[in-house]
Amino acid sequence: MKTPTIGSLLRIKEYCRKNATIKDHGEYAVLAPAQAGNYIKYDAVFPSGHRIIFMPRNWEVVSYAR
Questions:
Q1: From the CB of residue 27, how many other CB atoms can be counted at a distance below 10 Å?
Q2: Which residue has better confidence, 1 or 10?
Q3: What separation, in Å, do the N-terminal and C-terminal C-alpha atoms of the chain show?
Q4: Would 16 be classed as within a structural domain?
């Protein structure tokens, strides 16, 4: 599996779609650098602007950024 790069379009995997955050903000997000934390490298940013910690096993890449 290719490692996603900043700006890649992500979709939450099916088993995570019942999560309240996903229900509120949608299934799709963009990979972005984390704003907080020394050990967290990436965030998933929803179209609404809401950020969550990027957990690779919970996301599938729809489109890789160039």
A1: 15
A2: 10
A3: 16
A4: yes
Q: Distances in Å between the alpha carbon of 57 and those of 5, 13, 18, 28, 61?
A: 15, 8, 16, 15, 11
Q: How many domains does the chain have?
A: 1
> Measured between alpha carbons, how far is 65 from 4 in angstroms, rounded to an integer?
8
Domain that holds residue 51: 9-63
**pLDDT tens sequence across 3-61:** 899 999 999 999 999 999 999 999 999 999 999 878 999 999 999 999 999 999 999 99
- CATH number, domain with residue 36: 2.30.30
Please give the DSSP secondary-structure letter assigned to residue 18.
T
Is residue 4 situated within a structural domain?
no
